[in-house]
Amino acid sequence: MDTAPPTGGAVSAPVRPIRLGLGANAAQFALLVAVNALVGGMVGQQQTVLPLLAQSVFGLTGYTFIFTYVAAFGITKSIANYFAGTFSDRYGRKPVLLVGWLFALPVPLMLIFAPSWGWVVAANVLLGINQGLTWSTTVVMKIDLVGPRQRGLAMGLNEAAGYGAVAVTSLLAGYLAADYGLRPAPFLLGLFYAALALLLSGVFIRETRGHARLEAALHKAAPHAAPAANPGVLPRADTANPPLRADLTDRQIVALTSLREPALSSASQAGLVNNLNFGLSWGLFPLLFATAHLPVAQIGLLFALYPGVWGVGQLVTGALSDRIGRKHLITAGMALQSAALVVIALGDGFGTWAVGTVLLGAGTAMVYPTLLAVVGDVAHPAWRGRAVGVYRVWRDLGYAVGAVLGGIVADALGLHAAVWAAAGVSAVSATLVAVRMYETHGPEARRA
Question: How does it sit in the membrane (predicted)?
Answer without folding.
Answer: Multi-pass membrane protein
